[in-house]
Amino acid sequence: xxxxxxxxxxxxxxxxxxxxxxxxxxxxxxxxxxxxxxxxxxxxxxxxxxxxxxxxxxxxxxxxxxxxxxxxxxxxxxxxxxxxxxxxxxxxxxxxxxxxxxxxxxxxxxxxxxxxxxxxxxxxxxxxxxxxxxxxxxxxxxxxxxxxxxxxxxxxxxxxxxxxxxxxxxxxxxxxxxxxxxxxxxxxxxxxxxxxxxxxxxxxxxxxx
Length: 209
Hints:
With about 210 residues, this protein is α+β, with helices and mostly antiparallel strands. It has two domains: about 10-40 and about 50-95 and about 195-205, Orthogonal Bundle (Ribosomal Protein S4 Delta 41, Chain A, domain 1), CATH 1.10.1050; about 100-185, Structural Genomics Hypothetical 15.5 Kd Protein In mrcA-pckA Intergenic Region, Chain A (Roll), CATH 3.10.290. It has ten helices and five strands; from the N terminus they run H-H-H-H-H-H-H-E-E-E-H-E-E-H-H. The protein has a five-stranded antiparallel sheet, covered by helices on one side. A hairpin with a 6-residue loop joins strand 4 and strand 5 (about 185). Helix 6 crosses helix 7. The longest helix is centred in the N-terminal third of the chain and has 16 residues, at about 55-70. The radius of gyration is 18 Å and the shape is globular.
């Protein structure tokens, strides 16, 4: 399935906020948003253009897609699953996005960004409950064990994760052994655990129109 391969910083500039698409680089002065605040293709206007109600909801939906690295078909599928589940649709949708395997790998500190985490999963570096899983959209559940595939401990991504794991903040719904890098899913993430600035209500209104 195709994915966006253009400049990541262009997406952040379009949204006007950091989406941490390049990991630690986004926290340094090298971040494009630090050097250039204007959106890509920006031209000075004599009068600012007001965004429509539809446009506001579209932008919020696009931001969620870009943060989690999903395409429209996947996003619609996650929304439909959330709509059929008990509870608030918006919060459930964010919960589903958060419990994708590639996002869990990123949250555990195994990768510097979600795109890198997706690449680790695709290349077979990660196991789920002892089995190699190369599907980034696979959803984890409480009780699942996430680990590195045997034989990958000499590779650069594993060594980098092992060196930096102590400085990472792991969300409460996950736990990880800093020595073996074996992780466990403790529970489903709460809204406070998600930690991204997404107005899920606007996304629900977009898909419910």
